[in-house]
UniProtKB/TrEMBL annotation:
Taxonomic superkingdom: Eukaryota
GO molecular function: carotenoid isomerase activity; oxidoreductase activity
Keyword Nuclease applies: no
GO BP annotations, alphabetical order: carotenoid biosynthetic process
Protein's name according to its UniProt entry: prolycopene isomerase
Enzyme class: isomerase
UniProt keyword terms in alphabetical order: Carotenoid biosynthesis, Chloroplast, FAD, Flavoprotein, Isomerase, Membrane, NAD, NADP, Plastid, Transit peptide
Pfam families, per the entry: Amino_oxidase
Gene3D superfamilies: FAD/NAD(P)-binding domain (3.50.50.60)
Record-stated family: Belongs to the carotenoid/retinoid oxidoreductase family. CrtISO subfamily.
GO cellular component: chloroplast membrane
Length: 598
């Protein structure tokens, strides 16, 4: 895939010829319309011909430009859509774009001024900061699990990426330093060199992860709530599906204990899982652990040139290119229910929009606690809230530093827990650090690097303070975190800082519209793997959820999968995909029963 340090994710065999670009941080976001246009005798593919709300304007430039004009019409009148998506996080955007390419008329409503939510970006003083994680799984050109690449390709977008040679560099108690190399054999060699007596256990544990990953990677991923697809997969790939069904209720910590005895190594596996799920290995579903522990070696971690924010920007552009809409500063305050069915949404400014289906990318807590506060909590949601609680939020520090403070060959991502394994899950216990400018220097002014630091923190810790106390506490906690990094990793760090901005759980609640600024759902106790995690349908007709409080949980690639699943289920329900009402009822009942075992 890679040539030089930059590489381009290929879009597969179909190369469309209409090109429109916008920019993030000077990098063109290349979106190629996936519709079938031809220069000269303009030829429309069936999808365009079907689309009832677009007009094409052909200009006589060297490239075609497509001008879409929304003629407000459709089934139920002016503001009537096939689907309204509340929120434009990656989960919402993937659901919206997948539906749009199937021919649905979609309206995405975003409270903030740009798309992306936790995967958004912001710019200050010449820096482009990623809001959330900079570690992108599922963003390669290989296999079936590169869901971010596939989501972009579906709307004709491709992004330049920079392969990351190291997923993460762990700095752990007992001075344990482990680099997770892109090359699997190098990672295993490094880990076994630290735990030679556990060589066999290490190989067996990670091999079991590969068994799951390979099964996952062999499937076409669509809605597990749609029986025609699900039974079809069981028929075509029975062994792989049974493998996944077998691991569905299992957790990584139990499997690790089957092979590994050394408590320090088990703690290392805890740290591996913590960065995926914000809980230890005993609480982390084995399927999720396997997904990330193998994808990082299979397709590898790749960073988008210009920053993570470009992914959401491209998807939003792709959505509009497909003839659907996205509105910003559109704060949904209520979901409108008629005769027990979700039929529309109401905004804080009083506007109302109506659709055949409503998809919420707000967390399930926000959806049912705020947007549907008049309604009784459906039984399924009660169940979800029994099994899952809101993970704490986080404190984030975005910094610009003088470049010479970093030693040569510094890795992009670091995870730091200095002395005490027991502090792994404590607030401020461990520190995540990304330095995306190691991969893409264009994100910062010349001679500067970006340090994006985050650590878990609860909103309760930041309440009841005066403005002055709040500001002082922010700076004090940030000083403490930076000095820990200075001591362990980068001497002189404190004095090299030229820009710094601190976000607290309150900041994340405000800008990400997530209850208590939560990072996502985490199990209340030991879960039965992924068994208790709800899919996309809800107890309310016409209402679906998407995002990290749906199967399979936290993670950008995980929410992309939930978007794909959601779009498939919704498409079946509105007649854009095959559907069998009889099988639907049977499967939904079975899944409900399975969840009740969790
Ligand atoms: N530091 C990090 O690495 C980090 C931090 C947080 C989250 N994440 C990851 O990001 C992913 C979250 O993705 P997601 O798709 O579930 O959602 P998201 O939280 O990223 O996006 C949801 C979007 O919905 C919008 N929204 C919410 N309520 C709304 C309302 N009432 N009206 C209009 N818009 C509304 C928000 O503004 C936001 O843009 C998770 O995978 C999580 O693991 C990463
Ligand atoms: C339906 C039934 C009952 C049976 C059918 C059996 C069957 C066919 C099952 C199929 C299951 C499937 C298809 C499951 C699919 C699961 C997937 C795709 C899971 C994906 C999980 C991805 C995860 C968990 C990704 C997480 C990534 C995260 C959270 C990354 C975070 C990174 C950070 C926080 C950054 C770390 C930063 C630093 C600096 C270290």
């Amino acid at each position: 895939m890679s040539s030089g340090i930059y590489s381009t994710i290929e879009l597969g065999t179909y190369r469309p010829i209409v090109s429109e670009s916008s920019f993030l941080n000077g990098v063109p976001l290349k979106c190629l319309s996936s519709r079938r246009y031809k220069l000269g005798g303009l030829k429309l593919g069936s999808r365009v011909a079907k689309s009832r709300n677009q007009r094409l304007t052909v200009r006589t430039n060297s490239i075609l430009s497509v001008d879409k004009v929304l003629e407000k019409e459709g089934g139920g009148g002016e503001n009537y859509y096939d689907a309204i998506v509340i929120g434009s996080g990656i989960g919402g955007l993937v659901a919206a774009t997948q539906l749009a390419v199937k021919g649905a008329k979609v309206l995405a409503l975003e409270k903030y001024v740009i798309p992306g939510g936790s995967s958004g970006y912001y710019q200050r003083d010449g820096y482009t900061f990623d809001v959330g994680s900079s570690v992108m799984f599922g963003f390669s050109d290989k296999g079936n699990l590169n869901l971010i690449t596939q989501a972009l390709a579906a709307v004709g977008c491709e992004m330049q990426v920079i392969p990351d040679p190291t997923t993460v560099h762990f700095h752990l108690p007992i001075n344990l330093s482990v680099r997770v190399h892109r090359e699997y054999s190098e990672f295993i060699a490094e880990l076994t060199s630290k735990f030679p007596h556990e060589k066999e256990g290490i190989v067996k544990f990670y091999s079991e992860c590969w068994k799951i990953f390979n099964a996952l990677n062999s499937l076409e991923l669509k809605s597990l709530e749609e029986p025609i697809y699900l039974f079809g997969q069981f028929f075509q790939k029975p062994l792989e599906c049974l493998t996944l069904a077998y691991y569905l209720p299992q957790n990584a910590g139990d499997l690790a204990r089957k092979y590994i005895k050394d408590p320090q190594l088990l703690s290392f596996i805890d740290a591996e899982c913590f960065i995926v799920s914000t809980v230890n290995a005993l609480q982390t579903p084995m399927i999720n652990a396997s997904m990330v522990m193998c994808d990082r070696h299979y397709g590898g971690i790749n960073y988008p040139v210009g920053g993570v924010g470009g992914i959401a920007k491209s998807l939003a552009k792709g959505l509009v290119d497909q003839g659907s809409e996205i509105l910003y500063k559109a704060n949904v305050t209520g979901i409108i229910i008629e005769h027990g069915r979700a039929v529309g949404v109401r905004l804080s400014d009083g506007r109302e929009f109506f659709a055949r289906t409503i998809i919420s990318n707000a967390t399930r807590w926000d959806t049912f606690g705020k947007l549907l506060k008049e309604e009784d909590l459906p039984k399924e949601e009660e169940n979800f809230q029994k099994i899952y609680v809101k993970a704490p939020s986080f404190l984030s520090i975005h910094m610009g530093v003088k470049a010479d403070v970093l030693p040569p060959d510094t890795d992009c991502h670091h995870f730091l827990l200095e002395t005490d394994w027991a502090r792994l899950e404590d607030p401020y216990g461990s520190i995540f650090l990304s330095i995306p400018t190691v991969l893409d220097p264009s994100l910062a002014p010349e001679g500067r690097h970006i340090l994006h630091i985050f650590t878990t923190s609860s909103i309760e810790d930041w309440e009841g303070l005066s403005r002055k106390e709040y500001e002082a506490k922010k700076e004090a906690v940030a000083d403490e975190i930076i000095s820990r990094l200075e001591k362990k990793l980068f001497p002189g760090l404190m004095s090299s800082v030229v820009f710094r901005e601190v976000g607290t759980p309150k900041t994340h609640r405000r800008y990400l519209a997530r209850d208590k600024g939560t990072y996502g759902p985490m199990p209340r106790s030991i879960p039965k793997g992924l068994l208790g995690m709800p899919f996309n349908t809800t107890g309310i007709d016409g209402l679906y959820c998407v995002g990290d409080s749906c199967f399979p949980g936290q993670g950008v690639i995980a929410v992309a999968f939930s978007g794909v699943m959601c779009a498939h289920r919704v498409a079946a329900d509105i007649g854009l995909e095959k559907k069998s009402p009889l099988l639907d009822a049977a499967l939904l009942r079975t899944l409900g029963w399975l969840r009740s075992l969790a």
